[in-house]
Amino acid sequence: MNKIESRCLLCSQPLKTTISWKAFLTKQFSPTICEKCSARFVPAQSTTALYQYNETMREYLHQLKFLQDVALAKVFRQELYTRFKKEKAIILPIPMHPIKQQERTFSHTEELLKAAYIPYIQLLEKTTTETQSSKNRDQRIHASPLFRLKAGAQVEYKDYLLFDDIKTTGTTLKHAIEVLMTAGAKNVQYFTLIDG
Amino acid sequence: MKYTGWILPPALRDFHEGRIWLKNHSPFLPIDIDKAITHQYFHILEGIQKNPFNKCNRCHNIDPELFTIFECASCQQPCIYCRHCIQMGRVSSCTQLILWTGPTAIKKRKHVLKWTGQFTELQQQAADETLASVKAKRSHLISAVCGAGKTELLFPTVHDALKRALRVCIATPRTDVVLELYPRFQQVFPKTVIHALYGGAPKQDGYAQLVLATTHQLYRFDQAFDVMIVDEADAFPYTFDETLQKAVEKAKKADAPIVFVTATPSLKLQQAFQHESTSFIPKRYHNHPLPVPQFDALWNYEKSFFRGKIPKKLKHWTEQRIVQKEPFLIFFPTVALMEKAALLFQSINKQILAVHAEDPERKEKVLKLRNKEIPGLLTTTILERGITIRNVQVAVVGAESPIFTANALIQIAGRVGRNKDFPDGDIRFFHHGITTKMDEARAKIIFYNKEGFSL
Ligand SMILES: [Zn+2]
Ligand SMILES: [Zn+2]
Ligand SMILES: [Zn+2]
């Protein structure tokens, strides 16, 4: 996953591949997208996300998740690494339902973390194959539990940090927090790539 | 083995013949696909071939940078996929491609050519030469100036091939050109099933003996066509490069001839053809010379726009067009500059619009100009070819910018004077310093006129 891209992963324009000593010494990742593409992503207003949702982000998610272009998981590795490198809490990516994951061939939340070399564990599993976006607001809020603990999972009296690609209504995160708190977690926070 | 109770759905055959398709993306029921496979009606290929190096079996990409390896949750092992053709559905190591080898579709021999136009002498000669080449399975280059009536030239060749029950493809790099050609061919060949294929095209039924497609769509065909016509062979984003060459070669049968049609042939193309397989038309169908571009200095135009002012000469040019009720196109080198300028132009006339490649209303805006609902349109190079607007006048702002190659400038100039009632018009290159490309474009146009009128 650490190969140096010579072309932008989004627009295929050649990338300037001069690696500075600073980048080398501070263990920065080499860029995977050009400056032009990078400028189209807008930083989030909140402290619990990196970016705002916009047209560029919609296209990005479409290509990553729908077209299954898992290479794009690398696009935000530097920013994610910077955010998580000093994180003390245990990081838990929001899981996909196993059937869904097999269909997509990968879990995008896990791939985003893997690309940034962020250690994580899985304690939860998804109980339903339905997606949140296929439901209306009311159905989302009153849905039966979306997650349960994985068999043999040990939730300790510790800090946990949930990670998801996007937060829209917050229902997904709310469900996951509930399961973890009930199982004895000390505190559960969340962070997402995108603020929906 | 007995295969009772299953009859091959003709629609399945009609769709899959000549196509190389992701097995799990077929528009037909999985059960029918599986039955067809047990009948050995399909040849199955692995998505990515590993030896001697990674190769995508759909688009034939072999660039190592365009393959990504990942832990696949579907095949439970490291899996490789092709990023080159990913927009058409991902091809990976664990996906299968299917290629039709079953009974072939019924090809009609009765095709009607409904066209009453008259060829000029030069057109007739080129049409005859092309037909002779294709009949002899020889590739052919048609080099004809903008407005020479290149599409019509193809009618006799296409008609002849269809009558011989051959399958014909007309490929072009641009969706706009496919959209422009489709209704014309439907009109001219009313008894022929024609499909128009481009990104986002609707599903079309039946077996198309004539396919109009963007070159990108050719990746989805494999040894399908008996005659391959490549229109606008030089157009951005493909100069006749390896990608296009591969796609064209792959989509046609090995011995199928290729007809290249272009207004600005690259040297490489010109050199590739023998004299007997080349037709040259230096004159427009209406027998009037090509309008020659005028150079007009527009110093520091960029600064001027960013200070909120349209340069005087350009403003005057635009106002003149509006007063004389002549539709106009103004080309800009970048979207950013155009958008800046658009606001200023709208203070001259509110109805002036701007259009660029990603504009979803691109088609509608061009139509508005054609229907005289708006006085003029600002555009990036996307409208440099393929569009025809009666009596259109054209200006290029920043003709010295690198994006305006000599070919692009020739194409842009070629928008002017195409109609026989308005064979002339203004083509103005506004610049901040004359470049060799501008000189080259002008010199070539003057050369064509000389050639055309010495005959
Ligand atoms: Zn880019
Ligand atoms: Zn491919
Ligand atoms: Zn796989």
From TrEMBL, chain A:
PANTHER family noted in UniProt: DNA UTILIZATION PROTEIN YHGH
Gene3D superfamilies, per the entry: 3.40.50.2020
Name of the protein this chain belongs to: Competence protein ComFC
Family classification: Belongs to the ComF/GntX family.
InterPro entries with a match to the protein in the record: ComF/GntX_DNA_util-trans, PRTase-like, PRTase_dom
Superkingdom assignment: Bacteria
Organism name: Lysinibacillus macroides
